[in-house]
């Protein structure tokens, strides 16, 4: 029997009272499972943390005072118990070390996706699809109007440009994926990375499958030689250079609002779009779908009477 409150949304994060643990807690808790290292999912201060080796490496970089005795490295595909709940981390394909959390309790399988994507990404473990009775899925782009192009084709938007390019992107995950895409499909271009990205690139090379070619940014490199430089910068830096001259601006994202007022549109997302989300649901074959991280109403409408789709329950709500 499916327990409607097996995982609920609380102020602290997503809580499983049957195993007495949280997933992606936003404030310190006794026991927290972390799906991936992005700041809206990975926080410090917990008494016990379960995460993949890469996720913990990124967290130690961001939180150097994080206690090592509080962390437990979880290998993908290896089951372990917390209380009476059997837990397995499954590759999510979102970024290096990202994991879905498969929970089995009293014969029912609950799958929390975290953030995930189906598009291939040479810098991280590919998504693995497993069956589940309840799918607890992100719904960031759960809208039939949104369809992301293939990243391999989209990166070619940067080819044969007359000026160097300032490419805005997130420091962790997106920057490394873009570097790999540029290395592969635009080998004539030189990748320069912001100093905040440099250490993360090094960690990706240590823990990930891809070898990346890049240099630490310096002004001299941008000004000298041919106009074949692509400078990767984090969002704050990108926004601060809104009057930058002699450079083309682009921002890699699935959000249309982040493409406005740029010289080049670059729709590269690390989340599933509508089509991929439907394909994923079809393969998981759940009896129920609970939505998190977005708006699930269009998904509810799409499945109507065929499949129960609802928002995750809120504790005491």
TrEMBL record:
<feature type="domain" description="Metallo-beta-lactamase">
    <location>
        <begin position="33"/>
        <end position="145"/>
    </location>
</feature>
<dbReference type="Pfam" id="PF12706">
    <property type="entry name" value="Lactamase_B_2"/>
</dbReference>
<protein>
    <submittedName>
        <fullName>DNA ligase-associated DEXH box helicase</fullName>
    </submittedName>
</protein>
<dbReference type="InterPro" id="IPR001279">
    <property type="entry name" value="Metallo-B-lactamas"/>
</dbReference>
<dbReference type="InterPro" id="IPR050698">
    <property type="entry name" value="MBL"/>
</dbReference>
<dbReference type="InterPro" id="IPR036866">
    <property type="entry name" value="RibonucZ/Hydroxyglut_hydro"/>
</dbReference>
<dbReference type="GO" id="GO:0016874">
    <property type="term" value="F:ligase activity"/>
</dbReference>
<keyword id="KW-0436">Ligase</keyword>
């Amino acid at each position: 029997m499916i327990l409607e409150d097996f995982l609920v949304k609380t102020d602290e994060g997503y809580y499983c009272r049957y195993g007495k643990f949280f997933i992606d807690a936003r404030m310190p808790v006794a026991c927290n499972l972390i799906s991936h290292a992005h700041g809206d999912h990975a926080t410090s201060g917990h008494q016990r943390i379960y995460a993949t080796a890469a996720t913990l490496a990124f967290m130690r970089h961001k939180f150097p005072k994080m206690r090592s005795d509080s962390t437990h490295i979880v290998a993908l595909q290896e089951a372990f118990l917390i209380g009476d709940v059997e837990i397995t981390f499954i590759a999510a394909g979102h970024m290096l070390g990202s994991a879905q959390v498969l929970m089995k309790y009293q014969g029912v399988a609950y799958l929390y996706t975290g953030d995930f994507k189906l598009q291939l990404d040479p810098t991280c473990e590919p998504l693995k699809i497993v069956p589940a009775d309840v799918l607890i899925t992100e719904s960031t782009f759960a809208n039939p109007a949104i369809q992301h192009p293939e990243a391999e084709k989209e990166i070619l938007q940067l080819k044969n440009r007359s000026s160097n390019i300032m490419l805005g992107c997130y420091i962790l995950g997106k920057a490394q994926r873009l570097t790999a895409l540029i290395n592969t499909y635009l080998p004539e271009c030189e990748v320069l990375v912001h100093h905040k990205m440099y250490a993360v690139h090094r960690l990706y090379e240590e823990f990930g499958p891809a070898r990346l070619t890049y240099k630490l940014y310096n002004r001299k490199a941008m000004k000298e030689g041919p106009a074949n430089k692509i400078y990767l910068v984090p969002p704050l830096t990108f926004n601060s250079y809104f009057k930058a001259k002699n450079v083309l601006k682009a921002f890699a994202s699935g959000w249309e609002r982040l493409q406005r007022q740029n010289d080049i549109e670059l729709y590269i997302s690390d989340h599933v779009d509508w089509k991929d989300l439907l394909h994923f649901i079809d393969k998981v074959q759940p009896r129920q779908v609970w939505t998190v991280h977005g708006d699930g109403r269009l998904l509810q409408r799409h499945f109507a009477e065929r499949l129960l789709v609802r928002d995750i329950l809120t504790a005491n709500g």
